[in-house]
Structures are given as C-alpha cells and as structure tokens.
Amino acid sequence: EPEVTQTPSHQVTQMGQEVILRCVPISNHLYFYWYRQILGQKVEFLVSFYNNEISEKSEIFDDQFSVERPDGSNFTLKIRSTKLEDSAMYFCASSPRATQYFGPGTRLTVL
Amino acid sequence: AQKVTQAQTEISVVEKEDVTLDCVYETRDTTYYLFWYKQPPSGELVFLIRRNSFDEQNEISGRYSWNFQKSTSSFNFTITASQVVDSAVYFCALSEGSNTGNQFYFGTGTSLTVIP
C-alpha cells in the first residue's frame, strides 16, 4: 500500500540555522500539506499546496517558512532561521480528494 | 472558539471493556467532512474513518464503530472489547466546505490507555 514518506526522521539544529524537511507524497495525489505538532499538543495546520502553488496557509506559516515541489515527487518545507519554538513534530500529508494521509513525521529539535 | 472539541483528555480502561471517545464539532458550513485518526506511541497518524456531512449512517468496522449525529454536532467513536494495542492518542478532525484540499482542524486528542 502506498505511503507518504518523510526524511529525516529526526533533525537537530542550532537556533538561527536553516532546515529543509522532505516529503514524498503518494504518487497520484494532488493535494499536499504540512502540519506541526508541538509535543503533547494538537496537530496544527501550516500550509496546503495544489497545482504548484500554496492554496491555504495558517498564521503560523510566516515569512520564515516556505514550501516547494522541486520535482514530480518531493515536497519540501523550509524554515529559514529556526527558533526554539519551532521544535515540534512536522507531518506531511497528501490527499487524492478529501482524506489526508500522513507521513510518519520529522521531529525537529532546535537548540 | 475551537472547531473540534475532545473533552476527554485521558481515559483508562481495563482490557475487554468498551470505551467511547467523544468529539463535538462546530461549523457553519453545510458541507463538511469529519475524521478520526489514531496516533500510537510511535507517533504516526493513522487514518481510521471519514464521514461527510450528508451521511449520518453509523458505521462499524470490526471492534470500531462511529456515531455521527448532526443534531448534536457530535461524531463519537466506540471501541468494543478494547485491547492493549488500542492504547494511543485519538484525534477527531474537521474539514470544512465541499472543496477538496481544505485544511484539517484537529481536536486536542484523547489519550487512551488500555490496561491488561
């Protein structure tokens, strides 16, 4: 059964550094998303992407964040200058229509 | 205001007991989708079920069943004869509108512990 994959599983970075989180959505899906979950809290929407552009973004998704689909398979989330409060689990999801299928997540730790 | 409320933060049951996880949602849209996801200790989010706003038929899948009631804006999830492997955090989520690709609004989750 096709799955969403994410790399790396765990990323440790210093405050102020740039990080890129990578996702490979399910191949025939059209909609892509990033969510984050701060430890012990609920899952929060960051951004959705369709037809090579952002379709919706939340207040969390400020100028420090960007997304890209550099080729036909990868979907990336970039954080330009990480802050301590960016430490969280980041989930990528993709959907063919209504149901979103989530990847295993990347745990980002900002020191 | 929260669009999805899961009032039960933590629940503990003894194995083989039945347990119901509550979910109350709020939306002004007439078309919407509701979901349940399971997050086991390993951390991934596992899709369990989707319901659209026009389909109030309850659903049963093995030991799992879901009760959707628009009159009370609730979408509750029952696990029958719980097992230790059911221990996880369960999230209810709402997607508004008829357009696909809309964001999910998650509840705060209910942590279920099944004691052997």
Radius of gyration of chain A: 13 Å
Calculate Rg of chain B over CA atoms.
14 Å
Residue-averaged pLDDT of chain B: 93
**For the terminal residues of chain B, how far apart are their CA atoms?**
38 Å
Q: What would you call the structural class of chain A?
A: mainly beta
Number of strands of chain A: 11
**What distance separates the N and C termini of chain A?**
37 Å
Class by alpha and beta content of chain B:
mainly beta
Main interface pair? A-B, 28 and 24 residues
Query: Could you give the order of the helices and strands of chain A?
Result: EEEEEEEEEEE
Number of helices of chain B: 0
- Morphology call of chain A: globular
H/E topology pattern of chain B: EEEEEEEEEEEE
Helical run tally of chain A: 0
Helix content of chain A: under 10%
Account of the protein in words:
The complex is a heterodimer of chains A (111) and B (116). By secondary structure, chain A is mainly beta. Chain A has no helices and 11 strands. In chain A, strands 2, 4, 5, 6, 9, 10 and 11 form a 7-stranded mixed β-sheet that branches. A 4-stranded antiparallel β-sheet of chain A has the order 1-3-8-7, with no helix packed on it. In chain A, strand 5 (43-50) and strand 6 (53-57) form a beta hairpin. Chain A is globular. In chain A, 34% of the residues are buried. Chain B starts with a strand and ends with a strand. With 116 residues, chain B is an all-beta fold. Chain B is built from no helices and 12 strands. In chain B, strands 2, 5, 6, 10, 11 and 12 form a 6-stranded mixed β-sheet that branches. Chain B has a 4-stranded antiparallel β-sheet with strand order 3-9-8-7, with no helix packed on it. In chain B, strands 1-4 form a two-stranded antiparallel ribbon. Chain B has strands at residues 4-5, 10-14, 19-21, 24-25, 32-39, 46-52, 59-61, 64-69, 74-79, 88-96, 105-106, 110-115. The radius of gyration of chain B is 14 Å and the shape is globular. At the A-B interface, strand 4, strand 5, strand 9 and strand 10 of A face strand 5, strand 6, strand 10 and strand 11 of B.
